[in-house]
Amino acid sequence: MSTANGTRGTGAPSTGAPSTGRTLIRGGHVFDVASEFRVSDVLVEEGVITRVGPGIEAPGAEIIDASGRIVIPGLVNAHTHSNQTIERGLCDDLPLDTWMVLASYGGAGARLSPRELYVSAMLGAIQMLRNGTTSVLDCARADHEWMGEGLDAITQAYVDAGMRANVAAQYSDLDFFSSLPLDLVDGTEHLVRPPRAKPDAVLEEVLAYIDRWHGKNPRITPMLGPSSLPRCSTDLFRASADTARQRGLRLQTHLLSAKSQVYVAATRYGTSTVEFLERIGCLGPWASFAHAIWLSDDEIARFSASEAVAVHNPVSNLKLGAGVAPVPALLRSGAAVALGSDGASSNDNQNMWETLKMAALLPRAHEDRDAWPGALTVLDMCWDGGARAMGAPLGRVAPGHRADLVLLRAREVFVAPKEQVAYQLAYGDMNHAVDTVLVDGTPVVRDGKVTTVDVDALLDEAAALAARIWEGLPERMKNYEQTAPLLQRLENEVRRRPWSRATGM
User: Fold this and answer.
1) Where do the segments described as Disordered lie (predicted)?
2) CATH of the domain at 139
3) Which DSSP letter does residue 444 get?
4) What's the pLDDT tens digit per position in 449-473?
5) pLDDT at residue 505 in the model
6) How many domains does the chain have?
7) C-alpha to C-alpha distance for 126 and 453, rounded to whole angstroms
């Protein structure tokens, strides 16, 4: 297992457990969606907020001076792919299914070794911590050849950075073409292949990873990550849901991120995707679903009646032309909605401030004003929705919640009435204002600089890795060019077919 210095451990997870004790964050303007905006102290004991209010006395506690600072909960990125962080700037105007060929299945250039996966994950962690994101749900993908070691390397990166991370190990048993509605295009029957292995065999290595990391570090939660419903056979997805329920595991997958997947569901399940998830018992509070774009009205109602979490990724959805998620309808129906950046090869950054702003503004192009989510709503999606996706008490500056906190310089975020502070947080890019970041009460960023790793050395290694990635791009382009005509035909066929939110078809 690789570490930041390039050394190797014994193979057992390094816990990197945070130190316990008491910390008093004194004299900051505390912003919490459910509380009064005022100057308060925040007492942290063993990583948990125990008191919030003025004039707290805590003899022997470490003091963090928050005067001239606004104290907010750490942002939660509820969906990304750390293996893509090294590939920002990969492509421009490709729709989702075509982008998949270049980004995820591009050949040798797309394969990262365990050390390279560590570097890519660490690069993302540095970027997120710098912008005040303290928690991430990473749908991490490692090559089958070194899946266990690769997942360990990714997870160790988060331990070394000091970031809170749920790592959902991605897996599937169907190839890319078997995930598409090829029956809509003639002459494609030969491209459909059977599952590569039985569900138990596919899950075996993932569960071994989960067993290695379960309970090893309070900031790390290993999870099941079936890639998407179209890329998993019905048997594998059902087995994943059963395993999650029986073993008390969390699960994240992709849900209806492309219109083509509506037609896959109709053929494969004989019903809608969400009704299938309902039938197999996969709509529990332990499950979260990235994108959730092409939901019918019936699916929105079914989803909202459950405790599952939808994760909205507005920036990557727009870049890939995947569609616009029905977030106002989900919110009206009472669904839990979180926010995610998605991976850097479809978004190009891990900036949750940009995600917040886009989530607020996007509905204004096509929804009536009374459906627009305001600043406090999108902040609540990030904090409360993110906490639900992570399955942890996050997103509040309140007793009983984890002390994942960010101190913003008040000269760059104007102290004002609470509503105006919320507007600044939701619509302004606060990256430049991040001064101090704490996870479980432990500082991991001071004066805007990540303190847990040698950032310069990591960035040098990431630059060298990126150079290798670009060297392999011509080979990946050849693979893409071989499949692009077929995918364009399929894209045209799917686009021309009518679709109604009322029926889903």
Assistant:
1) 1-23
2) 3.20.20.140
3) E
4) 999 999 999 999 999 999 998 888 8
5) 83
6) 1
7) 9
